[in-house]
Amino acid sequence: YVDSMMANVANAILSVNISRHALSIVLLIYLANSQDIVVFQPTFLVASGPTVTSYLLGNNSGVSLTLRKVSLSNTTGSIGSPSCVEEATRWTLATEQIGKTALRLTLRFNQSLRLCTENDTIGDCCPKPLCVLETLQVSACVGSTPQASLLIQASLYAQLFPTNAGSDNQTVIPNQVYQPLGVCPCDLTHRVCDVRCCCDEVMLSVFL
């Protein structure tokens, strides 16, 4: 009875949390539409894989997106203000319009996460197990004025791939009549040909 009551309480708390999260998203969309502003949801993400997704809510007509790599200031210890100046990164940014007031953003890491080997001379691999450790900033701009920003903390580790991945090599299994893989189970009588026993040593000596 106590376990059942605790389970009901946990489900109720979970339902309340989900309802609050959904309500907050609805309120954000309503405020964005009523005040003609845009907001990212969420505004901060931690990326542990090569793909990350966020949403821009509100009237995104005339809004452009810029992506850049940022770092903490040595003097203030914080990240600077959002910028509408595009910078080259190792990520690609794709967008998809959802309805009239939502834009899905998808960032993809566009380099290999393969760990470099001793024979690698190309740069499209990871020299260390921690391949990527950087902070990205996506800014929603109208003209040259930032309206909203999204911060992404990316921590990507190198992946190990087999050296012969995709090889067409196949294991050849010999004909077990002449080359049995294990002990012959039907060879019951020593130096006597057992009937219907294809792997019997006496039988093999007759045909080989």
What would you say this structure looks like, in words?
Strand 5 (about 90-100) and strand 6 form a beta hairpin. The protein has two helices and eight strands, in the order αββββββββα. The mean pLDDT is about 75. The strands form two sheets. A four-stranded antiparallel β-sheet has the order 1-3-6-5. It is of the alpha+beta class and about 210 residues long. The relative contact order is 0.14. The protein folds into three domains: about 1-35; about 35-155, Sandwich (Immunoglobulin-like), CATH 2.60.40.10; about 175-208, no CATH class. It has helices at about 1-35, 200-205; strands at about 40, 45, 50-60, 65-70, 90-100, 100-110, 130-140, 145-155. Pfam families: DUF1619_N (PF25752). One of its GO terms (biological process) is smoothened signaling pathway. One of its GO terms (cellular component) is MKS complex. This is Tectonic family member 2.
Strands in their spatial order, largest beta sheet:
1-3-6-5
Strand content: 25-35%
Helical fraction = 10-25%
Q: How many domains is the backbone divided into?
A: 3
Order of helices and strands: HEEEEEEEEH
N-to-C terminal Cα separation, in Å? 75 Å
Largest sheet: 4 strands, antiparallel
Helix and strand content put the structural class at alpha+beta
Unreliable segments of 5+ consecutive residues: none
Total number of beta strands: 8
Mean pLDDT: 76
Question: What is the fold named in CATH at topology level of the largest domain?
Answer: Immunoglobulin-like
Protein name: Tectonic family member 2
Organism: Nothobranchius pienaari
InterPro entries: TCTN1-3, TCTN1-3_N
Domain Tectonic-1-3 N-terminal: 163-201
